[in-house]
């Protein structure tokens, strides 16, 4: 699965400011920047991010997904620690 496709799906499905995906061979990680999503419990955050990607889990295109969520303010402070721009 293409990284840009994961980013597109999440941007279209969720109310997010920014999304960054990385990974290969069906193992991916995403950073989601959204005040709305970050306000939810960790479980609710995972459910929200997994939901639009579930068809790709069932086909095996995605096997594992690591999720990190940030508020816009925290992302402004922490983005330099990540390799995303």
From TrEMBL:
<dbReference type="InterPro" id="IPR002634">
    <property type="entry name" value="BolA"/>
</dbReference>
<dbReference type="Pfam" id="PF01722">
    <property type="entry name" value="BolA"/>
</dbReference>
<dbReference type="InterPro" id="IPR036065">
    <property type="entry name" value="BolA-like_sf"/>
</dbReference>
<dbReference type="InterPro" id="IPR050961">
    <property type="entry name" value="BolA/IbaG_stress_morph_reg"/>
</dbReference>
<protein>
    <recommendedName>
        <fullName>BolA family transcriptional regulator</fullName>
    </recommendedName>
</protein>
<comment type="similarity">
    <text>Belongs to the BolA/IbaG family.</text>
</comment>
């Amino acid at each position: 699965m293409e990284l840009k496709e994961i980013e597109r799906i999440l941007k279209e499905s969720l109310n997010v400011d920014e999304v960054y995906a990385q990974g290969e061979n069906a193992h991916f990680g995403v950073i989601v920047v959204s005040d709305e999503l970050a306000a939810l419990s960790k479980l609710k955050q995972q459910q929200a991010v997994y939901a639009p990607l579930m068809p790709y889990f069932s086909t095996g295109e995605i096997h594992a997904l690591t999720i990190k969520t940030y508020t816009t303010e925290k992302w402004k402070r922490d983005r330099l620690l990540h390799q995303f721009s």
